[in-house]
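Appendix B, record 7
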Amino acid sequence: MAESVYKVIELVGTSESSWEDAAKNAVETAGKTLRDLRVAEISKLDLKVEDGKVVAYRARVNLSFKYGGGE
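Structure tokens (predicted):
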């Protein structure tokens, strides 16, 4: 088995409807420019509140992808 190296980045996804959609938005947006995405880990969930009402769900996501050109 070939050895590989992975890079981990932290992203914050947002959604007006759910934490699941917030996390999905972060991963799918990253997937437009990053290749070989491997694992997404939710590290924190929070809410944006305005005038006493929830206006957005936010998910902090640690996302790993294959680093470098080697196999």
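Remarks on this record: The longest helix spans residues 19-30. The two ends are 10 Å apart (CA to CA).
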